[in-house]
Amino acid sequence: MAHLRSFRLGDEPALAEICLRTADTGSDATGILDDDDIWAAVFVLPYVARHPELAMVVETDDGRVAGYAVATGDTDGFEEWFRTEWWPRFADRWPHPAGEPSSRQDGVLSYAYGRRADAEPFAAAYPAHLHIDLLPELQGQGWGRRLIAALTDALRAAGVPGVHLVAAGTNAGAIAFYERLGFTRLDAPADVAAFGMLL
């Protein structure tokens, strides 16, 4: 029987694979970038490196990790750590794109290089943020709701007053899911769907 559990060291390769296989607006992003490893280095691995206590996974009955939710309780602190400590280690492997982004990879790397404290407008009212991804085999079974409930409980216990998240504006399934969970839609550019929840 699949079950929820806390992140453990050694889960990172599974999380990276899930991130890759869901990074294209919920679909498999394999081969979209020149280097598939970029997705996880930006969107999941820094969270478990910085806040392993705010990471939950779904483990299947055959022992595979097939879903996760990761978070930070302090977006500004996390983004500054990402800028000064996490991302510099990748500068030689993935240099900053020159000029305006001309490819999907340039866009993701430009985002990574642009992360910093005070860059996220939602962080004042909703200082935490999270990322959640499930492989298709787990979708539609309530695991997303359970993952988010576990994380919001942990954030609430830590005294964090609110959490936000961002999805692609074209991801109708994700938008409907967050609305069902009680997140409030926040003002954001048309290509982005942003949500907040007071804890």
Based on Cα principal axes, name the global outline: globular
The average pLDDT score comes to 95
How much strand content do the residues show? 15-25%
CA radius of gyration: 16 Å
Structural class: alpha+beta
Number-wise, the strands total 7
Order of helices and strands: EHHHEEHHEHEHEE
Uncertain spans, ≥5 residues at pLDDT below 50? none
Compute the number of helices.
7
Distance between the termini: 31 Å
- The amount of helix comes to 25-40%
Q: Strand sequence of the main sheet, in spatial order?
A: 1-2-3-4-5-7-6
Largest sheet: 7 strands, mixed
What's this model, at a glance?
With 199 residues, this protein is of the alpha+beta class. 36% of the residues lie in helices and 21% in strands.
Which key phrases capture this entry?
alpha+beta
What does this structure look like?
The protein is α+β, with helices and mostly antiparallel strands and 199 residues long. The protein is 36% helix and 21% strand. The chain has seven helices and seven strands, in the order βαααββααβαβαββ. It has helices at residues 12-22, 37-43, 45-50, 75-86, 104-114, 143-157, 172-180; strands at residues 3-6, 55-59, 65-72, 128-134, 162-168, 184-186, 192-198. A seven-stranded mixed beta sheet has the order 1-2-3-4-5-7-6, with helices on both faces. Helix 6 links the parallel strand 4 and strand 5 (162-168). The longest helix has 15 residues, at 143-157. The radius of gyration is 16 Å and the shape is globular.
Architecture blueprint of SSEs:
Blueprint: E1 3-6, H1 12-22, H2 37-43, H3 45-50, E2 55-59, E3 65-72, H4 75-86, H5 104-114, E4 128-134, H6 143-157, E5 162-168, H7 172-180, E6 184-186, E7 192-198
Helix pairs in contact: 1-2
